[in-house]
Specification:
The protein is of the alpha/beta class and 139 residues long. 24% of the residues lie in helices and 36% in strands. It contains 3 helices and 9 strands. Strands 3-2-1-4-7 form a 5-stranded mixed β-sheet. Helix 1 packs parallel to helix 2. The longest helix is centred in the N-terminal third of the chain and has 12 residues. The radius of gyration is 15 Å and the shape is globular.
Length: 139
């Protein structure tokens, strides 16, 4: 299965088509819009994934900020173009015509690391430092 993976950060948005074996089939990156208008983010996402959506079978988005029921709320709205209650999952479904999931980027990192840890380790914390900072934990 081919996944359209998207990473939304404070300075850039990256997208890639990734096969089940983890190989990258195509990668693209653009600057994160900062015009304080949700339509700018939607337009940027639409542009970024336009040539990828026809190949993908699902999407997975990791983003800075709080993700609650598919809605992105930026802790620092200035980092993400003024987004406060942005329906990220619904917008990605509309743009791509695919089903998928959205998650906070630090939580995604925590989960990825947790899945490769030895089974006897049952608690861990993942800390990310980028344009902003964040953490995810598994226990």
């Amino acid at each position: 299965m081919i996944t359209l993976a998207v990473d939304i950060g404070g300075t850039k948005i990256s997208a890639a088509l990734i096969s089940d074996d983890g190989s990258f089939l195509l990668k693209k990156q653009i600057s994160t819009p900062h015009e304080r208008c949700p339509d700018e983010m939607t337009g940027a996402l639409r542009l970024l994934v336009s040539e990828m959506k026809g190949t993908a079978e699902r999407f997975a988005v990791a983003s800075t900020g709080i993700i609650n029921n598919g809605v992105l709320t930026a802790l620092n709205p200035d980092n993400l173009g003024g987004l406060k209650e942005y329906p990220l999952k619904n917008i990605m479904e509309d743009i791509t015509g695919l089903n998928g999931s959205v998650i906070n980027d630090a939580q995604a990192g925590a989960w990825a690391e947790y899945t490769v840890l030895p089974k006897e380790i049952c608690d861990m914390v993942f800390i990310t430092v980028s344009t902003g900072g964040g953490r995810g934990n598994c226990s």
